[in-house]
Specification:
The structure holds two protein chains of two kinds.
Chain A (H helix, E strand, L loop, with lengths): L3 E8 L6 H9 L7 E5 L4 E6 L7 H4 L9 H16 L6 H4 L2 E7 L4 H14 L9 H4 L3 H10 L5 E5 L4 H15 L5 E8 L3 H8 L21 E2 L1 E8 L4 E5 L4 E2 L3 H12 L10 E3 L6 H13 L5 E2 L2 H4 L3 H18 L1 E2 L17 E2 L4 E7 L4 E9 L1
Chain B lengths: L12 E9 L6 H10 L4 E3 L12 E3 L14 H4 L3 H16 L7 E5 L5 H13 L6 H6 L4 H10 L6 E4 L5 H14 L5 E8 L3 H9 L23 E9 H7 L5 E10 L12 H14 L8 E3 L6 H14 L4 E3 L2 H4 L6 H15 L1 E2 L15 E2 L5 E2 L4 E8 L3 E8 L2
Parallel strand pairs in B: 4-5, 4-6, 9-10, 9-14, 10-12
Antiparallel strand pairs in B: 1-7, 1-8, 2-3, 6-7, 8-15, 11-13, 14-15
Helix pairs in contact in B: 1-13, 3-6, 7-13, 10-11
Classes of the chains: A alpha/beta, B alpha/beta.
């Protein structure tokens, strides 16, 4: 049983859709940084936000007029994936589709605002308009309703590896339900200073406006955006291997989990390139060790210095970029590469590639990998 | 990594273990007793300030019950109470299944360690210092309590965490069921956990979905829900796997159905089409007619809209099936509710009784089913059906069978 990428969608700080994001990335562009000030503690963090005009179409949908950013981004990416597949999302198509969302922080803007109201004004001042949007599956619910999906709709929660786990979940659904023709997998994330503040507690967020990967881990910059992969039963890019993830309980266990998740292929089955999750944190060193041992000659592209660490959306954006790279036979150059990984791809170049490995070291929970192959 | 290359075959799926911690009791036996006795376990909220909310009660788990979840020590003191609930329920499930070797865990929750996020935010307001915050951040995420629970039970397996609002627990069990049924895994642990959190409590209060009165599911004069908390897990394994391990089945899981109601973020479609579709799909999956169902453990939150919708859906499918909502005894445990109620269904099948629907006085005349009323009673049960309905229009139905 084989499953394929039929459509790739994205909205990122670099573009309102997948194709424009890909083009900007290949040009070596870096998303503009915006300073998010934490008025409560006086600390500030840079972030890579998505310009509001990029989700203007989604924001015009009556269903989304009060929804959080995360839902707008998810909807925009989902519709983009349909467009990329050349499909009109009418009931003839969406009646046999499942939706799987990957969520990490959820609707953090509304959650913070809602809780702020409770703490500062008392429980009786809490807005009933905010609360529903704080629920993890709000974004999935909105997109399912816009598409008219009445089949399976699942929201998976997890760390930054959740996107790859969501692909595996979607593959499971398609394998178990022959009546489903496709599954739309969407990862979405919105920026908020609270994220930077929380991750700074673990020294995983930098206060600078740049971070390098595979160098000294000084922390990441959070991004926002969404990516969507429409999976079907036919197509050009096959999802070759997926897993629910390999768990780790501590940083020390993380490397062992990564070795198990990424595998140790023999030279004849090495991928042509890797799209990695390096983000300026401990994850870089974990990946570096495994790549240096098992994938020494394979070029590595790390997109996060360009677009920021978009957690729930990050893994799916990596898959989207791997898909574009296979489709266009072009490997982007990594913005801000550090000195520790010789195989990092520094400049965009054409490449004759048929297989790609997408790797993801989650920040607290699981490590995962996914192999793609163009036919 | 898993490669799916072969077509999948259907296998019998057995429930070989269960564990539950709920306001009704710290283990399955105490929960069974409370169900039979019709014990009401909704109490005044003492975990946070409720002076400004309409609703002031919830089904709560005493901290005393959770003390043995982890070995004593500084490290365990830092863990979230959600981890303690999950660890206890998981321990009981594994023990009752005679030390199974699950390959994957599927868990439902809606807020995970949310209360640590609340403490974090209060801390930010109170002080610029971040002292102690790393612990809160580290234990806040929905996956961390599950990692802790697995570690406490010496399991290191992949987890899939489903957050489909109030149907999360049923979705987790249903997905676990399908993984075993279709041969993708031989043994799966699945369920849900949900600790009470202030944000969610106030959220339901702000929506005026929570009641200041008693929770009265399916009563004509119902006025809203009260929240609950808890954790529950089932061990599901293929018939062959269970036979090879020499472990007896507690029940068989035979059906799972889901639907998405595309109507409104917080309100179900009044026609009941969402839960009706989920039930129809579960019946189809179980290859059963509704007439074969002997008991419905309803979602039954006691809100005006939920019970009207679910009542319409059940009425459309049957004439006189006995229905109860066990939320009347312990409140609504959100992401854990479907898992806890799944365990209650296994207990009802094992002990052949109908759990009660407390605080019930008068039924809505438009419904055709029989609300069980305030006392449990013995009954011949072969198949039971459990519904879950969540925010965002997620509907899930499980069907279990006596063995």
């Amino acid at each position: 049983m084989k499953f394929f990428v039929q459509g790739i969608g994205a909205v990122s700080p670099l573009g309102p859709n997948g194709q424009e994001t890909w083009t900007a990335i290949c040009r070596g562009q870096q998303a503009p940084r915006k300073l998010f000030a934490n008025s409560l503690a006086g600390r500030s963090y840079f972030s890579c936000p998505v310009p509001a005009k990029f989700v203007a179409d989604a924001a015009r949908q009556p269903r989304l007029r009060r929804s959080g950013t995360i839902s707008l981004l998810g909807a925009a990416a989902g519709f983009d994936a349909f467009a990329d597949a050349g499909l009109k999302p009418d009931t003839g198509v969406t009646g046999r589709i499942a939706v799987v969302f990957a969520i990490c922080s959820g609707g953090i803007n509304y959650t913070r605002r809602f809780y702020h109201e409770i703490v500062t004004g008392g429980a009786n001042s809490a807005s009933p308009l905010l609360f529903p949007e704080t629920v993890y599956n709000a974004a999935a619910s909105h997109l399912a309703a816009l598409l008219g999906v009445n089949q399976q709709s699942y929201t998976l929660a997890g760390d930054s590896s959740v996107g790859l786990g969501a692909i595996h979940f979607a593959i499971q659904l398609l394998a178990m339900h022959p009546e489903l023709e496709r599954c739309l997998v969407v990862g979405t994330e919105e920026a908020d200073w609270l994220l930077g503040d929380a991750f700074a507690c673990w020294r995983m967020a930098t206060t600078r406006d740049q971070f390098e990967v595979y160098g000294r881990p000084a922390g990441t910059i959070f991004g926002e955006g969404a990516a969507a992969i429409l999976i079907g039963r036919s197509g050009q890019i096959a999802l070759q291997e997926s897993s629910a993830g390999i768990p780790f309980g501590s940083f020390r266990q993380c490397e062992r989990a990564a070795r198990a998740a990424f595998g140790r292929p023999d030279p004849s089955s090495l991928p042509d390139f890797i799209v990695s999750s390096a983000n300026g944190t401990f994850a870089d060193e974990v990946e570096r060790k495994v790549f240096s041992d098992a994938y020494q000659s394979v070029p590595v592209y790390a997109p996060k210095p360009a677009v920021g660490e978009a957690l729930g959306a990050g893994g799916l954006l990596q898959i989207a970029l791997a898909g574009f790279a296979l489709r266009h036979q072009e490997l982007p150059g990594t913005v801000a590469p550090g000195p520790n990984l010789p195989s990092i791809n520094r400049l965009t170049r054409s490449c004759a590639a048929s297989t790609a490995l997408v790797t993801c070291v989650g920040f607290s929970h699981q490590v995962n990998a996914l192999k793609l192959c163009i036919l | 990594m898993c490669i799916m290359q072969e077509s999948l075959r259907s296998k019998r799926v057995l429930v070989t273990g269960l564990g539950v911690v709920s306001p009704l009791g710290p283990d399955a036996e105490s929960n069974r007793r409370s169900l039979v006795e019709g014990k009401e376990c909704v109490t005044p909220v003492d975990r946070f300030d409720v002076s400004k909310t309409r609703c002031k009660t919830a089904g709560q788990i005493p901290d005393d019950w959770l003390r043995t979840a982890f070995p004593p020590g500084r490290a365990s003191q830092r863990l979230h109470r959600g981890a303690r609930m999950a660890a206890l329920a998981l321990r009981e499930a594994c023990a009752s299944a005679s030390a199974p070797s699950p390959e994957v865990m599927v868990v439902g929750t809606t807020c995970g360690g949310m209360s640590y996020g609340e403490i974090y935010y209060r801390g930010l307001l109170a002080s610029k210092s971040r002292r102690g915050f790393a612990r809160l951040v580290g234990n806040y995420t929905p996956q961390k309590p599950i990692q802790d629970a697995l570690e406490a039970n010496h399991l290191r397996i992949p987890t899939q965490i489903i957050s489909n609002a109030c149907s999360s627990g049923s979705n987790a069990i249903g997905h676990g069921f399908e993984l075993v049924r279709h041969g993708l895994h031989e043994c799966v642990v699945c369920g849900g956990y949900e600790p009470l959190s202030e944000l969610v409590f106030v959220g339901f209060d702000s929506l005026q979905a929570a009641t200041a009165e008693k929770i009265r599911p399916f009563d004509k004069n119902r006025s809203g829900l009260v929240l609950g908390e808890g954790a529950a897990f089932l061990i599901l394994e293929s018939e062959n796997n269970a036979a090879n391990r020499g472990v007896a089945a507690l029940a068989e899981m035979v059906g799972y159905g889901v639907s998405t109601d595309t109507y409104h973020l917080t309100q179900p479609h009044p026609s009941g089409i969402g839960p009706r579709l989920a039930m129809e799909r579960a019946l189809e999956s179980a290859r059963l007619e509704f007439g074969a169902v002997d008991y419905v453990n309803a979602h039954g939150t006691a809100t005006i809209f939920n019970d009207a919708t679910e009542g319409a859906a059940i009425s459309a499918l049957c004439d006189a099936v006995p229905v109860s909502s066990t939320k009347s005894m312990m409140g609504h445990a959100l992401g854990a509710a479907g898992a806890i109620e799944g365990v209650f269904c296994v207990l009802a099948l094992r002990e052949q009784f109908l759990p009660p629907n407390l605080n019930f006085t008068e039924s809505d005349p438009s419904w055709r089913f029989r609300v069980i009323g305030n006392r449990s009673r013995p009954a011949r049960l072969r198949h039971v059906l459990s519904n879950s309905i969540g925010f965002g229009g997620t509907n899930a139905t499980l069907i279990l069978k006596q063995v």
